[in-house]
Write a structure and sequence with these properties.
By secondary structure, the protein is α/β, with parallel strands linked by helices. The chain is built from ten helices and eight strands. The strands form two sheets. Strands 3-2-1-8 form a four-stranded parallel sheet, sandwiched between helices. The protein has a four-stranded parallel sheet with strand order 4-5-6-7. Helix 2 runs parallel beside helix 3 and helix 4 runs parallel beside helix 5.
Length: 206
Amino acid sequence: MLRPSVADLEALLRESTVLPVLRAVSASEAMNQVALCAAAGLDVIELTTSTPDWPAALRDAIAAFPDKTVGLGTVLDACDAATAVTLGAGFVVSPCPAPDVRRVAGEAGVAMIEGGMTIGEVVEASGRGIAKLFPAGVVGQAFLRSLLQIRPAARVIPTGGIALDDVTDWIHAGALAVGVGRELFANPDLTTTITEIKTKKKGEPQ
């Protein structure tokens, strides 16, 4: 079980570039998705509470991949946050401001990525740690650039409606990492694609 500090999680996410956000139809399918992500070299993986029997998926993923940092996303209340912490989640993620989740995570010493859509919500979340911009596909990269003019040091992960082909552009817009969902598993060669994305992000913005 890996439970990094916020600083360590930031470093892991920056290196991984892509944060898989897994919304599976079952716990067993979630495990298949985790295995594909791990094989592709993604060291930080986010399961979600939208997966049926997500506690089993989280428990099994942590046990099967002890060298990966496995967290839980779409955490909206204190009960789910407490369950995630008990099962050993490396971090928790909310898609929106979630003070009850923040409290549980803080008391347990577990890193939280707190979401928001407005400038105020994301700036406030970024003042506490890593922020999530959701749904990023709605607001676009120009929004992130504008946000970072206000708080240049903000660590932001845009998620929601982002294609793998657009990840590098989001990174060049200032994202710490980029959340990607179902498109990961439509890719016939995810390992090569992830390697290419990591290579491209080192280049200069176009």
